[in-house]
Automatic annotation (TrEMBL):
This is Luciferase-like domain-containing protein. GO terms for biological process: alkanesulfonate catabolic process. It comes from Steroidobacter denitrificans. The lineage of its organism: Bacteria, Pseudomonadati, Pseudomonadota, Gammaproteobacteria, Steroidobacterales. Keywords: Flavoprotein, FMN, Monooxygenase, Oxidoreductase. It comes from the Bacteria. SUPFAM superfamilies: Bacterial luciferase-like (SSF51679). InterPro entries: Lucif-like_OxRdtase_Rv2161c, Luciferase-like_dom, Luciferase-like_sf, SsuD_RutA_monooxygenase. Residues 15-247 form the Luciferase-like domain. One of its GO terms (molecular function) is alkanesulfonate monooxygenase activity. The keyword Nucleotide-binding does not apply.
């Protein structure tokens, strides 16, 4: 099982030297991949009484495609992952071009994690329709793969209109698309979409009994699609809090559930600055038994 980390973009500041030091440390310690979160704008709570979202206008988020391109130039082994890009609020053809370029520049180290998101404020700011995001995502996944693999594409649907056009250069492969979502409150249609369309899944829950049931349901849906359930990658999410002595057990629980990947999130744990985050990387790498490069 591959172990990665969530890039702590909200907590290590804007210094490019700090970004370099963090990802070089992660790579040297043996982490397999780094995940960049995607949020374009935040809402101002002052004008929205009762706002209770997990982030707001003052929360710092890097643009993930630009950030991962920057990281690609200073690493050689780390896989680069969006986790997850809110795809329906972005232009599909532009994302196809960006993803192809990043995959080429990184020598096929890019993985495109996508989802529908939850923040209507962000959709409005980007001129996208929040209510149709699920239907848009279904089309986008199909269209991305066509653009990456065909010289010219004609695709005319409710949400897209492309007539005999394509990108160049093409990536050397169809970039892997992983879908987020499918938690306890999600409708079964979300799981069915993942089973039908995704190369992998980024589930947002613990690997407990309820989580194991969701994983088994996903495998059932894969089989219903005539798909080998083991062909769907699974990335377990683990909050590696210093105060939680159980988190290493969550990593192992994901391994027992057959996860192909796990990602450690070390943010929101009182760590301040680059040095604290690098020390935490070292501690977590040791606990996970990673082999240094």
């Amino acid at each position: 099982m591959h172990i990665g980390v969530v890039f702590p973009q909200c907590e290590i500041g804007s210094d490019t030297a700090a970004i370099r030091a963090y990802v070089e440390t992660a790579e040297a310690l043996g982490f397999h991949h780094v995940i960049a979160i995607d949020h374009v704008v935040g809402a101002n709570p002052a004008s929205r009484p009762g706002w209770n979202g997990p982030y707001d206008i003052d929360t710092q988020f890097r643009e993930p495609m630009v950030l991962l391109s920057f990281i690609a130039g200073m690493t050689r082994h780390l896989e680069l992952v969006t986790g997850v890009m809110v795809l329906p609020q972005r232009q599909t053809v532009l994302v196809a071009k960006q993803a192809a370029e990043l995959d080429m520049l990184s020598e096929q180290r890019f993985r495109l994690g996508v989802g529908t998101g939850w923040n209507e404020v962000e959709y409005e700011a980007l001129g996208a329709d929040f209510k149709s995001r699920g239907a848009v995502l279904d089309e986008q996944i199909e269209l991305l793969r066509l653009i990456w693999t065909q010289r010219a594409v004609t695709y005319q649907t409710q949400h897209h209109c492309i007539t005999d056009a394509g990108i160049a250069p093409h990536p050397a492969r169809s970039v892997p698309i992983w879908l987020g979502g499918g938690g306890a409150g999600a409708p079964d249609g979300v799981l069915r979409r993942i089973a039908r369309t995704a190369d992998g899944w980024l589930p947002p829950f613990l690997p407990d009994a309820a989580g194991a049931e969701r994983v088994q349901k996903m495998r059932t849906y894969c089989a219903e699609q005539g798909r080998d359930p083991t062909s769907l990658g699974i990335e377990g999410y683990v909050v590696a809090a210093r105060s939680d002595t159980q988190w290493p057990g969550y990593v192992e629980a994901w391994r027992r559930l057959g996860a192909t990947h796990a990602v450690l999130n070390m943010m929101d744990d009182g760590l301040s600055g680059l040095q604290a985050h690098c020390r935490r990387l070292e501690e977590c790498a040791a606990v996970c038994g990673l082999t240094p490069r």
